[in-house]
């Protein structure tokens, strides 16, 4: 018995709550407010047209809330067509209409986008020995929104790396992808390139593609260690011979000069010295 009355009370409460939540101002039939288009993409500083309309036959009031510049391009009782200009960041706009003292609003999102215009690929270093590593860097300045961007790094037609980005700051950003790889002998016949894809389909926009200029590596064969030793030895021997010959030349030229200028009286005197000594003894 007790449980039954409690159940009835619960049911009544639920119905009352439902009525409150679902049909406010239960006297007037609920009306709707529409915005077209629902989602919009715009370039920085761009402008867009938007149509706010209502199902209410005789709205008392209607408008668009925005701190940005707006112009009414056309209007009738049930709709207003606006031009909003100078949009520089992602914004949520609200259209509202008042019918029989009741206000209903609808919001729409506008996202600012900038397709990739420059895709810069850098290979570092550009001269690589087979088996040595090098870095591929792809830079895309001034692109947004970053969370719709993917950068692909290619070796020939093979995808080496793809990179996505989290939500960036609202201002125009630079996106960078880097990848380290090892040089192969065949790489000398392959182009490296980078592709930037800005996919705005889910935001009501288009897909933008931009390729970098292709770049090639200069690949050389590494010199094996045993060969290196031979080269170093040969070069050392040659250097030694060269230096020795210069030294010998110098010594001989000095000798020749002394002979010509006759400054070896000392040596002659030295040779004569024993004779002089014996002469004295005798
Ligand atoms: C705005 O939307 C309403 C309702 O959908 C439509 O009747 C009207 O022609 C539209 N106005 C413009 C200028 O597109
Ligand atoms: C709106 O436009 C007018 C003239 O076109 C300009 O003087 C004003 O600064 C603009 N206001 C905003 C908030 O951009
Ligand atoms: C607008 O964006 C906000 C988040 O930024 C999202 O929660 C909301 O659902 C979006 N509204 C529309 C109409 O797309
Ligand atoms: C890449 O190109 C080579 C020939 O240049 C071809 O044999 C290969 O199937 C291609 N690979 C892909 C994934 O397109
Ligand atoms: C590399 O790119 C250059 C410039 O686009 C092109 O002329 C060349 O044929 C390409 N080489 C290969 C192997 O794809």
From TrEMBL:
InterPro entries per record: ICAM, ICAM_N, ICAM_VCAM, ICAM_VCAM_N, Ig-like_dom_sf, Ig-like_fold
GO CC terms in record: cleavage furrow; microvillus; uropod
Localisation per UniProt entry: Membrane
GO molecular function: integrin binding
Superkingdom: Eukaryota
Pfam families: ICAM_N
GO BP of this protein: cell-cell adhesion
Transmembrane residue ranges: 228-252
Tagged with keyword Transmembrane: yes
Signal peptide positions (record): 1-27
Keyword terms: Cell adhesion, Disulfide bond, Glycoprotein, Immunoglobulin domain, Membrane, Repeat, Signal, Transmembrane, Transmembrane helix
Gene3D superfamilies: Immunoglobulins (2.60.40.10)
Topology term for the membrane: Single-pass type I membrane protein
Domain Intercellular adhesion molecule N-terminal: from-to ranges: 28-118
PANTHER family: INTERCELLULAR ADHESION MOLECULE, INTERCELLULAR ADHESION MOLECULE 2
Family from the record: Belongs to the immunoglobulin superfamily. ICAM family.
Name of the protein: Intercellular adhesion molecule 2
Annotated source species: Callithrix jacchus
Gene assigned in the entry: ICAM2
């Amino acid at each position: 018995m007790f449980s039954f009355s409690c159940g009835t009370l619960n049911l009544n409460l639920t119905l009352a709550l439902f009525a409150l939540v679902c049909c406010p101002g239960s006297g007037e039939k609920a009306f709707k407010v529409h915005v077209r288009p629902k989602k919009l993409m715009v370039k920085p500083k761009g402008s867009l047209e938007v149509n706010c309309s209502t199902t209410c036959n005789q709205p008392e009031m209607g408008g668009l809330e925005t701190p940005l510049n707006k112009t009414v391009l056309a209007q009738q009782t049930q709709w207003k067509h606006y031009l909003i200009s100078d949009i520089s960041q992602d914004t949520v706009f609200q259209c509202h209409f008042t019918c029989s003292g009741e206000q209903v609003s609808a919001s729409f999102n506008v996202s600012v986008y900038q397709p990739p215009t420059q895709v810069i690929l850098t290979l570092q270093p550009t001269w690589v020995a087979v088996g040595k590593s090098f870095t591929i860097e792809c830079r895309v300045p001034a692109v947004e929104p970053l969370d719709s961007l993917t950068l692909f790094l290619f070796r020939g037609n093979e995808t080496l790396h793809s990179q996505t980005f989290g939500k960036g700051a609202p201002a125009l950003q630079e996106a960078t992808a880097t990848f380290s790889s090892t040089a192969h002998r065949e790489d000398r016949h392959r182009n490296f390139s980078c592709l930037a894809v800005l996919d705005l389909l889910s935001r009501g926009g288009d897909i933008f593609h931009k390729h970098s200029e292709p770049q090639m590596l200069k690949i050389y064969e590494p010199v094996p260690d045993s060969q290196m030793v031979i080269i170093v030895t040969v070069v050392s021997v040659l250097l030694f011979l060269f230096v020795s010959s210069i030294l010998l030349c110098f010594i001989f030229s000095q000798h020749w000069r002394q002979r010509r200028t006759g400054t070896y009286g000392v040596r002659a005197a030295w040779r004569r010295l024993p004779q002089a000594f014996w002469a004295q003894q005798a």
